[in-house]
Design goal:
Elements (H helix, E strand, L loop, with lengths): L12 E3 L14 H16 L4 E3 L8 H12 L8 E6 L1 E2 L8 E2 L3 H15 L4 E6 L8 H13 L3 E7 L3 H8 L6 E7 L6 H7 L15 H7 L3 E5 L17 H15 L3 H10 L6 E4 L4 H7 L9 H12 L5
Parallel strand pairs: 1-2, 1-10, 2-3, 3-6, 6-7, 7-8, 8-9, 9-10
Antiparallel strand pairs: 4-5
Helix pairs in contact: 2-3, 5-7, 8-9, 8-11
The structure holds NADP nicotinamide-adenine-dinucleotide phosphate.
């Protein structure tokens, strides 16, 4: 679906949250620069041309370090599709952590992101998390003006359910092109919600029914954050009672399909008909390369269900 708007878009997105060093105001170090340079180069060499940012990642340093790379190699910009987000505000002298869809905040943060990234236009601006204090007309006017002035090409959202999207879309003149949600073999509530409907198991799914269907019916690209499940099935620390068994199955399947373990994790997401676009957040070049085979691996129905049931620790109802 993203290809409707960006025909050359890669199947994977590189997530830049890990670039820029620490989440504080310490300056960017040369080591941070080397890490970022290597990650971006490895992503591009692996065929990944979409990059995901947010104004808050490492407090602006992720965008700034990326902007340094673009300044040093201006030819890279046209090979990339760049998206960023705004609307999360951390606690500061004016108040607690909060979300802010006001015109003043959105406009300010877009200008700051463009400046840090050293670019004229964001390909996609996403509203990072739904603001309960949303003033619909104000947001619509702000987004319309940002598009009209060429500061953003498209609008997207993140962590929104289908009803919130429908409400926002009702006031916008441009289509919402992306919704970014946590979706993975670990964050599998988007599947649980559908299959446990009408059973007592459904109470803990935490996923708003109809969100997948809204996105699919309205050509909204679903992007998965946390797509690698932070490595919990691919050699990273386990976090739940069924993780060890799932990691063992992932390892067996990797041998069987002759791909890396990370590829199996991404293939599980990509086997879903929603054609989810995984965002990979690893800064490790070996792991970035290991993800790049994802499109070469299609899991069988049986293996997809076997992974799902092992990860949830129980067969489907
Ligand atoms: N919209 C939102 O609200 C939202 C929220 C969170 C993230 N995001 C976006 O989604 C992207 C991906 O999210 P994410 O970083 O949470 O998810 P991820 O890709 O599932 O996980 C990446 C993290 O897990 C670690 N990791 C991965 N595989 C590992 C392994 N085998 N062993 C040890 N550690 C491993 C990585 O460390 P190494 O770097 O050392 O490999 C990195 O810290 C972010 O970069 C950001 O762009 C969006």
């Amino acid at each position: 679906m993203i290809k409707q708007h960006f025909p050359a878009a890669s199947e994977l997105v590189y997530g830049c949250m890990g670039l820029g060093g620490s989440w504080d105001n310490n300056p960017i170090t040369d080591a941070d620069r080397r890490t970022a340079q290597e990650a971006v180069e490895t992503a591009l060499a692996s065929g990944i041309n979409m990059f995901d940012h947010a104004d808050i990642y490492t407090l602006g340093k992720a965008e700034a370090i990326f902007g340094e790379i673009l300044a040093a190699q201006p030819g890279l910009r046209e090979k990339m599709i760049l998206q960023s987000k705004c609307a999360i505000r951390f606690a500061d002298d004016s108040g607690p952590k909060r979300y802010d869809f006001s015109a003043q905040w959105i406009n300010r943060r877009v200008d700051e992101s463009l400046k840090r990234l050293n670019i004229e236009q964001l390909d996609i601006l996403m509203l990072h998390r739904p603001d309960p204090l949303i003033e619909l007309d104000e947001v619509a006017e702000t987004i319309g003006a940002l598009i009209a002035h060429g500061k953003i090409k498209h609008i997207g959202v993140s962590n929104m359910n289908g009803f919130q999207m429908q409400y926002l879309q009702s006031a916008l003149n441009s289509p919402i092109v992306v919704n970014q949600l946590e979706l993975s073999l670990a964050a599998r509530h988007f599947v649980e919600d559908g299959i446990t409907f009408n059973t007592s198991e459904n109470t803990q799914s935490g996923f708003a029914s109809g969100t997948l269907e809204y996105c699919l019916s309205n050509q909204v690209q679903l992007q998965a954050w946390g797509a690698l499940a932070q490595g919990r099935y691919t050699g990273g620390p386990t976090q739940g009672p069924f993780d060890a068994a799932t990691a063992a199955m992932v390892s067996d399947l990797a041998q069987q399909y002759e791909v890396a373990a990370e590829t199996i994790i991404l293939a599980w997401l990509r086997r879903h008909p929603a054609r989810i676009q995984p965002i990979i957040g690893t800064t490790n070049p070996q792991r970035i390369k290991a993800c790049a085979d994802a499109s070469a691996c299609t899991l069988s129905r049986e293996d997809w269900y076997a992974l799902f049931e092992t990860a949830r620790g129980n067969e489907v109802p």
